Structure prediction request, 467 residues.
Amino acid sequence: MKGMKCGLELHVQLETHKLFCNCPTEMRQDKPQFTVERVLHSVAGETGEVDAAAAAEEAKQTRFIYEGYDTTCLVEIDEEPPHQVNREALRIALQMAMMLGMDVVDEVHVMRKTVVDGSNTSGFQRTALIATNGSIRTSKGEVRVGFLCLEEDSARIVKREGNAVFFRLDRLGVPLLEIMTEPDITSPEHALETAEKLGMLTRSLQVKRGIGTIRQDVNVSVEGGPRVELKGFQDLRRMPLVIRKEVERQRKEGAKPEVRNVNPDCTTTFLRPMPGAARMYPETDVPKITITRKMLAEARASLPEHPDAVAEKLASVLNPELTRQLLHSDKLPLFNELRPKVDPKVVATTLLSAEPEIRKRFGIDVQIPDQVFKDVLWLYGESKIPKGAVFEMLAEYAKEPRDILEIMARFKAVDGLEVERTIKRIIKSKPGLSFAAYMGLMMKKFRGKVDGRLLAETIKRELGNQN
Ligand SMILES: [Zn+2]
Prediction:
């Protein structure tokens, strides 16, 4: 789209302990074990100014209530200073920098960024610049990646009640990679491609998987107008349409520098003005870290294969569509683990389609644990169960999660002789039916127990014998 400028901002949660304490980073679904209440005080920034937005928020007299667990500590409620930066998270950030060909800083300085909505107990978010000046290759040329930061995630909002806002502390302090591209993206489709490529790179590292673990923001401007930030993309595939509509809106209404929320119908609504500049000042509780050669060497030693190389390898064992889907799926590491032992096509198809198929057929919204996928696919790989049983066993598990061996007892491989005897019996009692009709009868009897191909072959052979 001519005149459009667009850049991306990604936030990716890392699969480590928290950034400034040793608490785990698991999201809790059970009831909170304690609450603490805080009122936000706006703090003077480095320049001595009080952030206008912070002052406005305080004026509203909002009560912030934080819900915690035994998996959170005094750091999350700001009763204890932050500990040293988590070294594993730092290593992953360095690896991301390497994958994007970035210049890594010599010293990591943790900064405080004022946060006015209560989502941080301290009133600020800690963030550290890790690298600058990288790029990612796309079909439309290089998109420059300006900055890579390592920062702490905010507390997640659970509800609002009157003037009270309730937050969970489980997410506060989860390490995040923040990746910012320059506005080199030239079309809505190009934005999607870039987002997918960046997503693919991050997924090859030790990051969290599943809903809410990657957040994509998009900056859009038209014809020299101000930058507008779009937040809350739920579904990447809608990104092109959202951007197209936003460009149209900006051209029609004119744009203000503001943050807008993406709606389910792909339009956007005003969320808040663009935050001011007087927001960063040094975090004096965390000492600076000098990036040593040893740290870089360690990061490089465990650097995973670049996704472009992975894509090439996948393309040699899978068709283009499966390759594409798998590359954009968070099931790729699981695929790689299973690939040496099990037919890659069966593994890819199962990992990609079992959950959506179960949702469609049985209306069960299931997330099958990696271990269950492994158990079932290994059983198939060792010829303990027929191919048709793979999906059926996963569906059984979705309906009633239990031990896989228990489920398997129902799906014991049936031998060819039993199949042959059965079809003979059926043909005898119902002669003259079509191949499809016999296939239907046999499927009813053997679904999930016998490979469809074996059924078809046996029926064909027996029908042939009749003539
Ligand atoms: Zn903690």
The CA atoms of residues 400 and 407 lie 10 Å apart. The chain has a mean pLDDT of 89.
